[in-house]
Amino acid sequence: MEQRITEQLADLAEAFDKIGLKPVICGGLGIYLCFHGSESQDRQLIRATTDIDLMLTESQVVEQAQRQAIAEIITDRLQYVVREGREHLHFEKDNDQLLDILAPPMDGFKCDDVRIKLVSSQLHGRVTKEACFVEEDLRAIPLSVFLSDDDRRYDLRVQVPSPTNLLLLKLFAFNDRDESQRFNPERAQAHALDIYITIMLTSRADYLVGQQFLARHEDSVIIQTAQSIVWNKFYTIEQSGWRRVLESSIFYPDLNRREKETKLEEAKRRLIRWFKITHEK
Description:
alpha+beta; 2 domains; 10 helices
């Protein structure tokens, strides 16, 4: 992980720790943090990230004083400023440190299709409906892995979503960029590659936890939608999901097409099994 991102993440964790919270990190960085210790060959595919996707969960913002404290951390203590045209959702400092705010739908807040207003005119979150279960099975990641022993932030931790929640986030993100008005082949390709990485780096223990999670929420529209995305876009390697991975220039460039397709077949089997997709769907 780049030193700049390490420092940015450590500063965020330290500031959150002062109010008794741990930041929840999603996106590409969340995937990196979740699987940084993996010994699988596929770990090398984790793409470098240039920003931090910070998920503000319901338990973190339900109290007005706490969400106000988070807003002050971002804009005062850490001195982020809003990015023009993306006010109160996207922040930056020093021109290269980017912080994007996400949040699941929550009752009691003003929101529209794009944003949920956590602190009016200060802090909003991009509405992320597929994150409705994000607080379940969160994983704490010690920063000691990335910091020197004498760094005052050595004992701090951040949190990342469970592998199943990471898959939900990425499946919805892929679908959003693979069609509709937000169609963007480059972003769709990046999300599809993240799905490949995530499903290939999961362990047997991850799978068992994931099955318990899915059993708890089998009637959820979010889970059913994710299953439909897998069925419609990842059920065969000819479909758009795996095709985007195959098109990626960083997906094992030294392998021939047949070797790449063999890897995709394994990822496909894992993803279908994870979400319990059957041929009769």
